Amino acid sequence: MEPVQQNRSVWWELSTTGPCMLLRRLIDRHNQGSFDPFYWLAVCYCSPEFDRADIIPPPLHPQRETLNYLVTGLVDPPELEDEHLSRPAGKNRWVNVVGGLKQATPSQSVYVLNMELWMHILPGASGGGKRWELESEQVPLVRTDGAQVRVLCGRFAHREGRIAQHPLGTTILDVTLCPGGAFEYQAPPENTTVLYVFGGNVFFGKEAEACFGKDSFLRICGGSIIASSFASGGRFLLFSAKPISRKKPAVCPANDSVCPIQK
């Protein structure tokens, strides 16, 4: 099999302050039409000085729901090109542990990734908008032979997520692939399904045809998602939900089931 060239996606980079080392918009007003019902997704890589209390939550809105997810532990950040984003001299804050599962000390959590997601809600739905704030160590965990799956929303295997049921059948998973491990998920084919890789390297497809590394944002076409890893392991977020509008989202090119999203 010919080696697969890794495709890297390009994002809008936002200015950072304080403990926010790198902040990126993955879904916003420029491309939200392709990701219905998701219309805002941003990720922030944080230093240990990050304080979640500094985040000002958006105002509740009757036509949207919001989710903030905080991953704790130690993990390699994305490659930082700017000098002011590099590691402080003499301080080994980050270790190359896939998935961010290793703590700095048994009693200390180091903030690694903060994710903010906004979703449209069904017209006429009662109760108005809601907001959830979750942390990785407080989310139901499913262990398989080759992966550890944190269930934020929906259901995986025998476990319901912190958000057990959702009107749009939404599933949100935080998947950590062990070195040499594999993961499989059947998303409804009509769903909008996207992935964000933030640790290690992940291969997709039955024959591991495509490899994507850290900081890759992918749209999955079709219902079957097969992910695997070799020596490095990998970690990614999975989002899947039924679109609200009748307009079909953009699709991948013919004969290509995994698409890197470009901005």
Write structural notes for this entry:
This protein has 263 residues and is mostly beta strands. It is built from no helices and 18 strands. Helix content is 0%, strand content 41%. The strands form three sheets. Strands 7, 8, 11, 12, 13, 14, 15, 16, 17 and 18 form a ten-stranded antiparallel β-sheet that branches. A six-stranded mixed β-sheet has the order 1-2-3-5-4-6, with no helix packed on it. A two-stranded antiparallel ribbon has the order 9-10. The model is unreliable at 1-10 and 76-104 (pLDDT under 50).
What characteristic shape results from the CA principal axes? globular
Low-confidence stretches: 1-10, 76-104
* Approximate helicity band: under 10%
Task: Report the end-to-end length measured between terminal Cα atoms.
Answer: 30 Å
SSE order: EEEEEEEEEEEEEEEEEE
Helix/strand-derived category reads mainly beta
Q: Enumerate how many helices there are, as a single number.
A: 0
Radius of gyration based on Cα positions: 18 Å
Tell me how many strands there are: 18
How many strands, which pairing sense, and closed or not: the largest β-sheet?
10 strands, antiparallel
User: How large is the share of residues in beta strands?
Assistant: 35-45%
Mean pLDDT: 76
